[in-house]
Amino acid sequence: MIRLSGRFRSALIIGGQGIRSRKLRTFLSMISLFLGVLAVVTVQAGAETAKTLRLADLELHIGKDGTRQMYIPSMPDAMDAALTTVAGKADAVGVMGYQAIIGEPNVVPINQGAAPFDNTDGGYYGPPMQMDCNPMTGECRPIKDEQAAQPTRGQAVELVLQGLTGDIRQFRPFRPVAGNWLDFSGDPSYSPRLVLNKEAAKGFTRYQIPAEMRVEGATANPTPRIVGVVDDGNSQPTAYVRVDEMRNWMPKTTANQMYGPGMQLLFAPTAGETEALVVRKITALGVSRDMLHVETINARKDIAEELAIIRWIFLGMAGLVLLIGVAGILNVGLATVGERVEEFALRRAVGTPRSLLAGIVLAETLLTGLLTAAAAIGLGVVAIDVGAGLFGSRVPQLQDLTFPWQAGVAGVIAGLVAGLLGGLIPAIRAARIPIATVMRA
Amino acid sequence: MSPLIEMVGITKTLKGQQEPRVILDGVDLTVDRGESVAILGRSGSGKSTLLSLIGLFDRPDDGHYFMNGRDLARIPERKAAALRSAEFGFVFQRFFLLKHLTAAQNVAMALVNGQGWLPRRHRRARVLEALDQVGIAHLAKQRPAKLSGGEQQRVAVARALVRSPSLLLADEPTGALDTETGNLVIEVMRAATDRGCGLILVTHDHAHAAKMQRVLSLSDGVLT
């Protein structure tokens, strides 16, 4: 062990002396290798950054990995049971969707169908189809445009309203933009407090909207209070509200009829008991277990598969560039060994084993590879810092961007592999130099 | 007391030419501790070949080579390297100093060779002691380009002595030096024999050979 340690130290000392004595050659080797290592670092950093950003987007849209999502069918009693079960729980949140119009009464909202404000005239967000249904037979038929009431467009915006039983941010990490988040600790207010997403805030900034909110099924039009704005990654105008503040305005009978498409429950991975309780209560009401659709969010796996192919393609290209760098080190290494034949023969004469001679050459190329990796990683760190500083204000996801450690590891590995590959043949040549060279000189 | 080295019936034939040429033909040689031996001979007589066999650079085709009673004639390279480090010191006609290292670092080369490990402080002490033995400790930090030929050869001698070898092998060490400087180098090496180190000097110079305790001649592969 001591002997190995001695050889290792000797290789490092002599390798370091070799590098210091041939600074220009080492520098030229580093240049030939630099682009290759930088390519590997860039690909790895890019892939990790893309993964982080994509994951952050998915967490905003879908939820954090491991979150259990349960969809409760649109059955009033079932939804009521679910709501009361998860209310006040820290590890579960119920989400109920409403459609709300805020602003002047009896006008067509500026963004009918809760369309994005820059796309109010097109897309799939058009006006909801008007239907005439026969309560006796249950048959429905679309009403022709001329038959439907055609109020004029006015100062009102239409929103998707998400009624929450608790803080959803533990599952979907919304980024705060302004103001505060909803306070679930106190009693519900008769003036529903809203937190808007950025798209909804755009509407309120752009237009003069009176504070009157109409929600289908409500007994009166409450006056909402906007308490904050968040970035939820959603392009549709959306507002978040305490569900109990909405239900203040909805008698149970009305509310039961207006639940629309059903509700969603989000459970933390540790909320197994709460989830089981909800299932027991709902199935006790006669709802089949099969109707309770449950799934676990696994965004990391999904995007890993999505990004893996791209990453391998780019790594392949980076590998080719790296190979050119390896050829550069190999070339310089062979030339250097050729020049140092007498030195290596002399070292053998004074008792240096062949393995250490090979180790000296490898130590030099490995140190060169490591120095190159350090330079490439340093450049990567600076580039990401500068990029985040320059573009962070325009792309919020970039604000917290840091150099991924995986890229650093990839850079070091690339440097070491290049040093090893580039130094192997010169090392073998150095070890084979006959001692008699010094006798013949 | 057993001799330091004993060679019995050593033969060496150079192959790879049209006809194999016998370089050493049944050479017998014994050297005691602290003894100095000069080997004279014409160019191509096999002096350097004999020295390379003694120094374990190469192996004989036949015969026995004992050192401290152990036969080294078939010793594997790994063990030969360890012995070269521990038992032998080499001085060549050319000095073979690395120009990017100082005199002290050149001497330390024989200590940083993967055969055991000496802490830096001990290494420095050994190097300065060796340089002091050859009278140039004050030049420890000089690079070879700043040293005269004689000083460079003395650095090479210090490198050979730094591990306190049992046997110093010198292959025409004064060949590149003027007479006065050559004498100085020979004296430095002879002084090592006073400390118990054997010395084999291969030379063309009869005056230098005469300073050794024994003078042998190699001719037609036979040592007399």
TrEMBL record, chain A:
Its main location: membrane. GO terms for molecular function: transmembrane transporter activity. Keywords: Cell membrane, Membrane, Transmembrane, Transmembrane helix. Pfam families: FtsX. It is a multi-pass membrane protein. It is found in: Cell membrane. InterPro entries: ABC3_permease_C, Macrolide_Exporter_MacB. The chain crosses the membrane at residues 27-47, 312-335, 356-383, 403-425. Signal peptide: none annotated. Residues 317-435 form the ABC3 transporter permease C-terminal domain. One of its GO terms (cellular component) is plasma membrane. Belongs to the ABC-4 integral membrane protein family. This is ABC3 transporter permease C-terminal domain-containing protein.
